[in-house]
UniProtKB/TrEMBL annotation, chain A:
Domain NADH:quinone oxidoreductase/Mrp antiporter transmembrane per the UniProt entry, residue ranges: 126-402
Domain MrpA C-terminal/MbhE: 685-769
Name this polypeptide is given: Monovalent cation/H+ antiporter subunit A
Organism: Psychromonas aquatilis
InterPro entries: CPA3_Na-H_Antiporter_A, MnhB, MrpA_C/MbhD, MrpA_C/MbhE, ND/Mrp_TM, Proton_antipo_N
From TrEMBL, chain B:
Keywords: Cell membrane, Membrane, Transmembrane, Transmembrane helix
UniProt-annotated stretches for the region Disordered: 97-116
Primary residence: membrane
Membrane topology category: Multi-pass membrane protein
Classification via InterPro entries: CPA3_antiporter_subunitC (IPR050601), NUOK/Mnh_C1-like (IPR039428)
Protein name according to UniProt: Na+/H+ antiporter subunit C
NCBIfam families in alphabetical order: PRK09094.1
Cell compartments where the protein resides: Cell membrane
Coiled-coil blocks: none
Transmembrane intervals: 6-22, 34-57, 69-91
UniProt keyword Aminoacyl-tRNA synthetase, yes or no: no
Similarity section: Belongs to the CPA3 antiporters (TC 2.A.63) subunit C family.
Length: 931, 116
C-alpha cells in the first residue's frame, strides 16, 4: 500500500468502533487500533526513504476552479508528526480501554478519537493549504466532541464550548490568512508556497498574513492571551487530555508555525512577536502551574508553559533554534502524555485529583509512582532524560539570540527563571502526590491500576530514557530530516549530546534546578503571596462575553424584526424610494421628444373611472364588499384600456382573470369579518404612509411618462420580423409566449401550478369558524341555488367550452391562446359550481385537478424535450403546413402542443384554488383533506 | 394622452401602496391587487401607446410593441396566483392565530372575534 493511505486508513476506521461496540471492551479497543496500527507500519516502511532525504507527493484534482486539490506530502516533518500522532494515539486507545468505565459509551469515544486522529494526520500531511485548513477545523470539531464527552457534566459542556469558540475563531483567521497568502503567491499548493518566502516577505500584505496565521496558531496552541481554554478543557476524560492537550492538537499551532517557517519567518516582526508571546506564555504558565491544586490543572498550565517555550524557540533568530523547537515538541509530547496518563491512573484508582488530599501514594502504587517520577524529572530537565537535552539546546539558543538588541540578555535570565518554576512544580507533583504524609479523605483506598493500563506509561517513560541516553541512535536522524523540511535549505552544524563540557547552559540548568528547589521549599510564602490576588476564573469572563454577544444580537434582531408586516412593507417601500429617486434627478426633462397621442373623450372617462375607483377603494376600505366592488371596477377599466391600446390578448386575459379574482375574493370574504375595524392607526402613521405612497406614485407616474415620450430602441422588431417565418404564427404575442420565450412561459406555468398546490395544502388543514349570520345579524338566504341561474348556466356550458376551444385554436394567428382559453374554461366550470353547488358538481365531474396540473406541465415539458430527439436545444419549435382533402391547407406546430400544456395547467391551477376554497364550507371538505 | 395615462398609473400605485401599509390582511390583499394593476399598466406602456394596431401580422401598417404585451400577459396570470396565495394565507393566519391584523403585536381579542 502507498503512503497516502496513511490519512485514509484511520478515516475508514471511524466507523469500526461503532460496529464493534456491541462486542466486549477489549475486542472493541483491538479492532479500533487495527487500522491506525497499519497506518503506522506504512510510515515506518517509508521511513528509510524519508531518512535518505526523499519526500513523497501525491495529488488528486478536487475542485480545481478553487485551487482545491486533494494533495498529500510526506516529508521529514510530516513523518515525525505522523509517528507522534499514530504512536501516542495507539497507546491512548489501549489506555482508554481501562480508563473508561462501563457506563461510558466506548464505541462513541473511540469514534471521536479516531476522527480526531484522522484530522491531525490530515493537517500534517496536507500539501494544499485549503485542505490543511479543512482538517484544522475538523480537529476543532472533534476536540469539541471529545472534551464534551461527559456531556452531563456542566464543566465539560462549558469547556468544550470555550475550546470550540476559541480554536474555531482562530481557524477563521487562519482561513483568511491562507486566502491572502494564496493571492500573493498565486497557488494553494504548499510546494509552491514554501518556495516563495522572499515574495511573501516583500509583499505589502505580509503583516496581515503573518497576523492572521499567528492568531490561528496561538489560539490552537494556547498562547497568551488565548491560553485560558486549555485548563478548562481538562474537564475531558484523561485519555483525551493525554492525547489532545499534550501531544497532538495543541502542537498543531506549532506545526503550523514550523510548516510555514520558510515563508513567514525571518523578519524582525516575526522574531519579536513570536518570541515575546512565547516568552510571556512560558513564564505565566510555569508560575501559575505551581499554585494549581488540581493534578490536571498543574499539568495543563505546565503544557501552556512548554508550548510557550517551543514558540519562543521558533521566534529566536538563531539557526539552531528551530531544531531545538522540533526536538522539544517530541520530548514534551512523550513525557507530558505519560504524566497525564499517570495522573489519570491516580484519579482512577484513588478517586481524587486534588493534591491537598492525595498524599503519600508511594506506599500504595510504587510502580506508577516511579514512572511518574521519572516522567516529571524529564519535565524538570534532569540529565539522562530527554527533557534535559532539549532544555540544554534551548538555553544555548537563548544565549545566542539577539532579538531585543541590547536588552537581549533578558531572554536567558527569564528562561532560567521559568525553568526554575518548572523544576518547582515538577517537585510539587512528585512530593505532594507520592510523599508528604498520608492521604486525606479519599473516597477509596488507592491501589495499582490493571496491568495493561500501565503499559502505555511504561513505554513512554522508556522512550524518555532511551532518547535521553542515546539521542543520536534513536531520534537523531528523524530530527535532522524534520528540521530539513522546516528550513527548506541545508542545515547548519549541530550536535545533540548529554555532555558538552562545563559551559553557560549547564550553569543555567544548575541554577534553575537549585532555584526550583528553593522555590518549592519556600512555597508557603509563595502561596500566601499568590492568595492575595483575586481569583479570576476565565470561564466566567468568557461566558459573560458570550452572553453579552447573544443579548446584543437578540436586541438587534428584535429591533429590526418585530413581526409587523406593516413595518417591513414600509421599509421596503422607503428604501425602494431611496434607490429609484436619485436617477430621476439626472433626467433633464420628463417629457421626451416623441409626439404625444391626442387626447379624446373616451380616455378621459376611463381615467376618471380609474381614479374614482381607486379612491373609492381606499375611502370605503372598511366596508370590504364595497371596496371589492370598486376594485373590480378598476380592473374592468384596466382591461378596456388594454383593448383600446391595441392589446386584445391582454384585454381578454385581464377580463377573465378579473372575474376569477373577484369570485375568489368574494369567497374569501365569507370567512373574514365583513368590516375592517375602524382604524386605530395614529395620525403620524397615517401621514407617513400617505407621504411614502404618494412619493412612490409620483415617481412611478414620472417614469411611466418619461418612458412613453422618449424614443426607445427595443428588440421587438426582431419578433415582428420572425414571427411568421420562425414561429409560424401571425399573433406575435402568442408566438413570443409559446415559442421565442417558451422557456419563460414554462417556468411561469410551473409557478402557477406550485402556487395552486400550496394553496390546496394551506386550505386542507384550515379550521375556520363560519357563521350563519352576516355582520348585521341577518341570516343568509335559505335558497342556496336559484333555479334560474342553475338552468341558464347549465345550458351555457357547451357554448362556453366551444368558445374556449375556438379561442385556443386561433391563438397562434389571432388574439387568443392557451392562457385565455384555459381561463375561459375555468370560468365556465366555476359558474357550474356557483350555480349548482359543490355536491352537484362532484357527482358529475370527477376531475382530479392535481393530475390536470401535472398533465399540463408534463405535456409542455415533453414538447420541449421532444426537440432533443432532433438534436435541437430545449423547446425549439417546429411547424409544417399540411393539406388534407376537403379540409384544405392547415398548419401543424409543436407550439400548439406546448399551448395545450399551458391550457391544462391554467385550468387545473385555477380550479384547484377555487374549488378547494369553495368546498371548505361543504361536506366535501373531508375529501379535500384526504386527496 | 400619455400624461393622463401616467397620472392614472401613478395614482393607482399610490392607492395600492397606501392600502398595503394598512393593518389588516384583507385591505392588504386589495392593495396588492390594485398595485399589480398599476404595475401591469406601467409595463405595458413601456412599449408606447398605440391605437388600432394590434401585433397581429397583416392586420395593419405598424404594430404595437408585442414584447411588453407578452410579458404582461404572463404577469397577469402569475399575479392572480400570487393574490390567491396571499388571500388564502391570510385566511389560514386568521384561522390559526385568531387575528387578521398584520403588525405582529396585536394579541388575539376574543371580543372582536365574537362580534364578527
Amino acid at each position: 500500500m502507498d503512503y497516502f493511505w496513511v490519512p485514509f486508513l484511520p478515516m475508514l476506521g471511524i466507523i469500526i468502533p461503532l460496529l464493534t461496540n456491541k462486542l466486549n471492551r477489549s475486542a472493541c479497543a483491538l479492532t479500533t487500533a487495527l487500522l491506525p496500527a497499519v497506518a503506522l507500519c506504512l510510515i515506518f516502511l517509508d521511513l528509510p526513504a524519508i531518512l535518505a532525504g526523499e519526500s513523497f507527493h501525491k495529488s488528486f484534482e478536487w475542485i480545481p476552479q478553487l485551487g482545491l486539490s486533494l494533495s498529500f506530502r510526506l516529508d521529514g516533518l510530516a513523518a515525525l508528526f505522523s509517528i507522534l500522532i499514530l504512536g501516542i494515539g495507539l497507546l491512548v486507545i489501549l489506555y482508554a480501554r481501562y480508563y473508561l468505565s462501563a457506563k461510558d459509551n466506548m464505541g462513541r469515544f473511540y469514534c471521536y478519537l479516531i476522527m480526531f486522529m484522522t484530522a491531525m494526520l490530515g493537517i500534517v500531511m496536507s500539501n494544499n493549504m485549503l485542505q490543511l485548513w479543512f482538517y484544522w477545523e475538523l480537529t476543532s470539531i472533534s476536540s469539541f466532541l471529545l472534551i464534551g464527552f461527559w456531556s452531563y457534566n456542566s464543566d465539560a459542556r462549558k469547556g468544550a464550548r470555550m475550546a470550540l469558540t476559541i480554536t474555531g475563531a482562530g481557524g477563521l483567521a487562519l482561513l483568511a490568512g491562507i486566502i491572502l497568502l494564496a493571492q500573493v503567491v498565486g497557488s494553494y499548493e504548499l510546494d509552491v508556497v514554501l518556495n516563495s518566502g522572499e515574495l511573501v516577505r516583500q509583499s505589502p500584505y505580509y503583516l496581515a498574513i503573518l497576523g492572521l496565521f499567528l492568531i490561528g496558531a496561538f489560539t490552537k496552541s494556547a498562547q497568551f492571551p488565548f491560553h485560558f481554554w486549555l485548563p478548562h478543557a481538562m474537564a475531558a476524560p484523561t485519555p483525551v487530555s493525554a492525547y489532545l492537550h499534550s501531544a497532538t492538537m495543541v502542537k498543531a499551532g506549532i506545526f503550523l508555525l514550523a510548516r510555514f517557517y520558510p515563508v513567514l519567518a525571518g523578519t524582525e516582526t516575526w522574531f519579536v512577536v513570536v518570541s515575546l508571546t512565547g516568552l510571556f506564555t512560558m513564564l505565566l504558565g510555569a508560575y501559575t502551574a505551581l499554585f494549581k491544586h488540581d493534578l490536571k490543572g498543574l499539568l495543563a498550565y505546565s503544557t501552556i508553559s512548554h508550548l510557550g517555550l517551543i514558540v519562543l524557540l521558533l521566534g529566536l533568530n538563531t539557526e539552531l533554534a528551530a531544531i531545538a523547537a522540533i526536538f522539544h515538541i517530541m520530548n514534551h509530547a512523550v513525557f507530558k502524555a505519560s504524566l497525564f496518563m499517570a495522573a489519570g491512573i491516580i484519579d482512577h484508582e484513588s478517586g481524587s485529583r486534588d493534591m491537598r488530599k492525595i498524599n503519600g501514594l508511594w506506599k500504595y502504587m510504587p510502580v506508577t509512582a516511579t514512572l511518574a517520577m521519572v516522567a516529571s524529572a524529564a519535565m524538570a530537565g534532569v540529565p539522562l532524560l530527554n527533557g534535559f537535552l532539549s532544555k540544554e539546546m534551548f538555553f544555548t539558543e537563548t544565549l545566542a539570540q539577539s532579538i531585543l538588541g541590547s536588552m537581549s540578555w533578558l531572554v536567558p535570565v527569564l528562561a532560567t527563571i521559568a525553568a526554575a518554576f518548572s523544576v518547582a512544580y515538577s517537585l510539587r507533583f512528585i512530593h505532594d502526590v507520592f510523599f508528604n504524609g498520608e492521604p486525606k479523605g479519599l473516597p477509596k483506598t488507592p491501589h495499582e491500576p490493571p496491568r495493561y493500563m500501565r503499559v502505555p506509561v511504561e513505554i513512554l517513560v522508556a522512550i524518555c530514557l532511551l532518547v535521553g541516553i542515546f539521542p543520536n541512535y534513536t531520534i537523531g536522524p528523524l530530527l535532522e530530516n524534520a528540521s530539513l523540511a522546516v528550513f527548506n535549505h541545508p542545515l547548519p552544524e549541530y550536535s545533540i549530546s548529554i555532555w558538552h563540557g562545563f559551559n553557560l547552559p549547564l550553569l543555567m540548568s544548575g541554577m534553575a534546578t537549585l532555584g526550583g528547589v528553593g522555590i518549592y521549599l519556600n512555597r508557603k510564602h509563595l502561596f500566601k503571596f499568590a492568595g492575595m490576588f483575586p481569583d479570576i476564573d476565565a470561564k466566567f469572563i468568557f461566558e459573560g462575553c458570550i452572553q453579552a454577544c447573544v443579548r446584543w444580537a437578540q436586541k438587534v434582531t428584535n429591533g429590526l424584526e418585530n413581526g409587523s408586516l406593516q413595518r417591513y412593507a414600509f421599509c421596503l417601500c422607503f428604501f425602494a424610494l431611496l434607490l429609484i429617486a436619485p436617477p430621476l434627478f439626472e433626467l433633464e426633462t420628463t417629457r421626451g421628444s416623441l409626439p404625444g397621442t391626442p387626447l379624446n373623450g373616451a380616455v378621459i372617462i376611463a381615467a376618471v373611472l380609474i381614479i374614482a375607483g381607486s379612491l373609492a377603494t381606499i375611502i370605503w376600505s372598511h366596508y370590504r364588499l364595497i371596496a371589492l366592488l370598486m376594485l373590480s371596477l378598476v380592473g374592468l377599466v384596466v382591461s378596456i384600456t388594454f383593448a383600446y391600446f391595441s392589446a386584445p390578448d391582454l384585454a381578454l386575459t385581464q377580463l377573465s382573470v378579473e372575474i376569477v379574482t373577484v369570485i375568489l375574493l368574494l369567497l374569501a370574504l365569507y370567512f373574514f369579518p365583513q368590516h375592517t375595524p375602524t382604524s386605530k392607526s395614529r395620525p403620524s402613521r397615517f401621514v407617513r404612509d400617505l407621504a411614502v405612497a404618494s412619493l412612490i406614485g409620483c415617481i412611478i407616474g414620472s417614469i411611466s411618462f418619461a418612458l412613453m415620450t422618449h424614443p426607445l430602441d427595443s428588440i421587438s422588431a426582431f419578433f415582428l420580423a420572425n414571427s411568421k417565418t420562425g414561429g409560424g404564427g401571425t399573433n406575435v404575442v402568442n408566438v413570443i409566449l409559446v415559442d421565442f420565450r417558451g422557456f419563460d412561459t414554462f417556468g411561469e406555468i410551473t409557478v402557477l401550478g406550485i402556487a395552486a398546490l400550496g394553496i390546496h395544502k394551506l386550505i386542507a388543514r384550515m379550521r375556520l369558524s363560519t357563521h350563519n349570520k352576516d355582520d348585521d345579524g341577518r341570516r343568509w338566504a335559505k335558497e342556496k341555488y336559484p333555479v334560474l341561474l342553475s338552468v341558464v348556466s347549465q345550458s351555457l356550458l357547451p357554448l362556453f367550452l366551444l368558445i374556449s376551444v375556438y379561442i385556443f385554436m386561433r391563438g397562434h394567428n389571432l388574439p387568443g391562446g392557451g392562457f385565455i382559453a384555459g381561463l375561459i374554461t375555468s370560468i365556465a366550470l366555476i359558474q357550474q359550481y356557483l350555480a349548482n353547488g359543490v355536491g352537484w358538481m362532484v357527482k358529475r365531474v370527477s376531475i382530479n385537478y392535481h393530475y390536470m396540473i401535472a398533465i399540463g406541465l408534463i405535456t409542455a415539458g415533453l414538447t420541449g424535450l421532444g426537440s432533443w430527439l432532433f438534436g435541437r436545444p430545449f423547446l425549439t419549435s417546429w411547424f409544417e403546413y399540411v393539406s388534407l382533402p376537403w379540409i384544405g391547407k392547415f398548419e401543424l406546430a409543436s407550439a400548439l402542443l406546448f399551448d395545450i400544456g399551458v391550457y391544462f395547467t391554467v385550468i387545473g391551477a385555477t380550479l384547484l384554488i377555487l374549488a378547494s376554497l369553495g368546498k371548505l364550507t361543504t361536506t366535501e371538505r373531508l375529501t379535500v383533506g384526504e386527496r | 394622452m400619455e400624461l393622463v395615462y401616467a397620472i392614472c398609473v401613478g395614482f393607482m400605485s399610490a392607492c395600492g401602496i397606501f392600502l398595503m401599509l394598512r393593518g389588516h390582511t384583507f385591505t392588504l390583499v386589495i392593495g396588492l391587487t390594485l398595485l399589480s394593476y398599476a404595475v401591469n399598466l406601467f409595463l405595458f406602456a413601456s412599449g408606447g401607446l398605440t391605437i388600432g394596431a394590434p401585433a397581429v401580422l397583416n392586420s395593419s401598417e405598424n404594430y404595437a410593441d408585442p414584447l411588453p404585451q407578452a410579458l404582461v400577459l404572463t404577469a397577469i396570470v402569475i399575479g392572480f396566483a400570487m393574490t390567491a396565495f396571499a388571500v388564502i394565507l391570510a385566511m389560514r393566519g386568521r384561522a390559526d392565530l385568531g387575528s387578521d391584523h398584520v403588525d405582529g403585536t396585536e394579541a388575539f381579542d376574543p371580543l372582536s372575534e365574537e362580534k364578527s
